[in-house]
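Work Package 3 (structural annotation) set out to generate three-dimensional models for the target panel prioritized at the project kickoff. During this period the team completed the workflow that converts sequence records into discrete structure tokens, so that structures can be stored uniformly alongside our sequence database. As a representative example, we reproduce one entry of 177 residues exactly as it appears in the project archive.
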Amino acid sequence: MGVPHPPEKAGLFIAVLFSQREILCSVLPLLGERFGQILLESPEYAWDHTHYYEKELGRPIFRRFFFFKGSFDPLILPEVKLETNAIEAAFTENGKRRINLDPGYVMRSRIVLASAKDYSHRIYLGKGIYGEVALYYKDKRYNPFPYTYYDYRKPECLNIFDTAREQLQGLTDDIRE
């Protein structure tokens, strides 16, 4: 019989898509107020995997990841997604988003993303939000699934998550491999 136990420690991150740097600069203080100090941030990457966001965000589109200090309770991921949706809405102009904010969390064993869209590989978390395990840790690195977003498969993305994983070591002594 399995014995229930708390989940391993997690760290919150927000993946950001944008085309106007000034919008990102306006949003970052709001994220800091709500989610705390930024522990780690990725460089800016060109994002050209689909044209899906161009009508809203414009071109060219860039991706950045922001990881926040402190441990994160995975149970509140739906609330965080709803809050980031509200921030996106506050920066909407003429019915178009000008920034895309996708929260998730990093654990030593996996990377989980929040989504408002259901699909076969997502599980319902509550409040209209679904969770997707995007990467899993094996053989001393994160690995994608067949459904993992293309940009999450790129070496620079995997490297930033590896770095974030190393930062998790400071959150607790009982993190399991």
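The radius of gyration is 16 Å.
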